[in-house]
């Protein structure tokens, strides 16, 4: 009986992890394709299809980030399935909120914040690997955003120099073609980095349930396939509100040289961080690069009001997701370790569907979003 209840709970937790992976996909579609769609380098549907395909492929390239998430954020010896479930709920809740507001916040930090908040509520600070979070998440995250922005500033200035030397029409066509390649690399890096985060969480759940050993880290093939499919499906859905923000509002009407510079600098950092096992926020890296490309273009091209809202969202992500997760764990613990996740999960699913339908109705009357979705070849 106990084993059967544990299996039910594991099923719910894995489902929540895949749901988070799905929200990660549509929340972060803008990272790769916002500028590509905005500059008309690719038609909208082709851009989403390309991003989804490369997200799927990227998920199989490495497991370094998955290992960091599974063992470097919380203490495996103190973790339990209800804690993991509450952490995922905090991450999903924060992702959906920022997506509704059109803010390109960090899905990665939402997940880490959720896990930390649930762990603090359940066992206290001893269950959190503070050194790992500092060394693997916070410090690399700050440096990556600054470096991405700086490289994009330089790249955009160089790109505009080519516009003068070669001719605007010829250079613009070349940069649009270049954007397809650079956006593809961002998509590949996003799959490599972000899909692994959900893999790490599922492995953590399997360890907590006794299905895997904590001493021999491995990611089962079915976990890789599930996470790759979930993030690809979410990406294909398209997070249009965030695409609109990154593609049109941060720096006004973004140009092909800007888009190429932002994507190229972001892709380099994301792929590098995946190799070293740093669970970077691809959203923050690409957003920093987009802001840098606006600075590089000059002529007061950055909308600092929007950039400021993004910055506030970044600062609130870790504590915000942690607070939601801690509250979720409180409710789950009252209802019981098995009934709690089932009941809370069902309510969260119903709320998510209602929010999605509400957003669809609102977006259907938004002329700007409809223009983006209809971007032709």
From TrEMBL:
Provide the GO MF annotations for this entry.
Answer: phosphate transmembrane transporter activity
* Pfam families the record matches: PHO4
Q: Which GO biological process entries does UniProt record here?
A: phosphate ion transmembrane transport
Keywords annotated in UniProt: Membrane, Phosphate transport, Transmembrane, Transmembrane helix, Transport
* InterPro entries per record: Phos_transporter
Q: Name one GO cellular component term.
A: membrane
Q: What is its main location?
A: membrane
The membrane-spanning stretches of this chain are 48-67, 79-101, 107-125, 137-160, 312-332, 338-357
**According to its record, how does it sit in the membrane?**
Multi-pass membrane protein
Localization (cell): Membrane
PANTHER family listed in its UniProt record: LOW-AFFINITY INORGANIC PHOSPHATE TRANSPORTER-RELATED (PTHR11101:SF54), PHOSPHATE TRANSPORTER (PTHR11101)
Q: Belongs to which family?
A: Belongs to the inorganic phosphate transporter (PiT) (TC 2.A.20) family.
Give the protein's recorded name: Phosphate transporter
């Amino acid at each position: 009986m106990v084993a059967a209840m544990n299996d039910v709970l594991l099923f719910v937790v894995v489902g929540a992890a895949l749901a988070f992976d799905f929200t990660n996909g549509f929340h972060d579609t803008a990272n790769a394709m916002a500028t590509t769609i905005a500059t008309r380098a690719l038609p909208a549907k082709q851009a989403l299809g390309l991003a989804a395909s490369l997200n799927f492929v990227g998920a199989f390239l490495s497991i370094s980030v998955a290992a960091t998430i599974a063992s470097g954020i919380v203490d495996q010896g103190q973790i339990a399935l209800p804690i993991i479930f509450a952490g995922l709920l905090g991450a999903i809740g924060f992702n959906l909120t920022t997506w509704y507001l059109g803010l390109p916040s960090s899905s990665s930090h939402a997940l880490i914040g959720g896990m930390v908040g649930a762990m603090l509520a359940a066992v206290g600070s001893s269950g959190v690997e503070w050194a790992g979070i500092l060394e693997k998440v916070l410090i690399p995250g700050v440096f990556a955003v600054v470096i991405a922005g700086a490289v994009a500033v330089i790249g955009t200035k160089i790109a505009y120099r080519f516009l003068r030397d070669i001719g605007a029409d010829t250079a613009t066509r070349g940069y649009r073609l270049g954007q397809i390649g650079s956006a593809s690399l961002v998509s590949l890096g996003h799959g490599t980095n972000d899909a692994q985060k959900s893999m790490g969480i599922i492995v953590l759940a399997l360890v907590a349930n006794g299905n895997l050993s904590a001493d021999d880290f491995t990611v089962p093939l079915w976990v890789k396939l599930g996470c790759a499919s979930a993030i690809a499906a979410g990406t294909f859905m398209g997070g249009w509100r965030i695409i609109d923000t990154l593609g049109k509002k941060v720096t006004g009407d973004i140009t092909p040289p800007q888009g190429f510079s932002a994507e190229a600098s972001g892709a380099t950092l994301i792929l590098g961080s995946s190799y070293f096992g740093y669970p970077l926020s691809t959203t923050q890296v690409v957003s920093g690069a987009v802001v840098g490309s606006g600075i590089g273009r000059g002529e007061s091209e950055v909308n600092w009001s929007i950039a400021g809202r993004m910055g506030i969202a970044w600062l609130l992500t870790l504590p915000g997701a942690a607070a939601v997760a801690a509250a979720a764990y409180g409710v789950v613990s009252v209802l019981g370790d098995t009934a709690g996740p089932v009941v809370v999960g069902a309510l969260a699913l119903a709320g998510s569907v209602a929010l999605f339908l509400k957003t669809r109705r609102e977006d259907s009357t938004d002329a700007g979003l409809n223009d983006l979705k209809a971007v032709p070849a």
